[in-house]
Amino acid sequence: MGASYIALAGNLGPLKRITGLIEILDFDLAVRGDGPVNHDGCIQAEVYRAPEVVLDKGYSYSADIWSLGVMLWDFLEGRTLFQDVDPLHVEEYYDEQHLALITALLGPPPKDLLDKGKRTSMFYKSDGTLQNPSLIPEDFTFQNTICNMSGEWKRRFINFVQR
Fold it and tell me: What is the rounded CA–CA span in Å between residue 43 and residue 149?
């Protein structure tokens, strides 16, 4: 991999700041996700935790893709998307608020996810709406959380993420 550059489809500008080295950890805890059964249990740093993990539905590679997506957003914006549940910014992780924030951005989770989640009833009503919608800050939307893009790039990015 000798290249020291990244090719971009569009110029997003210079990095906001260099924060240090990136480390990939926990390889000793890695499990394959292509088996016939999803894995159970709590994984991932709270701020990067996938909805299926919070709901205890069982997880596979999709949980890793979720984490990667949130990390890429964090790199793009230079701050944490889910600061309200980040242990670096709040005293305690609050999974109900985390799911509320995710729901605010992406809409209700798919019915299949809600039906299979062992903890779904703690957070969602039977119709798929949040038990406690007041946990969503009024201004928490993709439009308001993305500051480092504008115009057509921002619109396309939001459309892509919400698919």
Answer: 31
Query: Residues for the chain: how many in total?
Result: 163
pLDDT at residue 33, rounded to an integer: 61
The CATH fold assigned to 40-161 is: Transferase(Phosphotransferase); domain 1 (1.10.510)
* Beta bridge mates, 124: 130
Q: What is residue 110's predicted lDDT score, i.e. its pLDDT?
A: 94
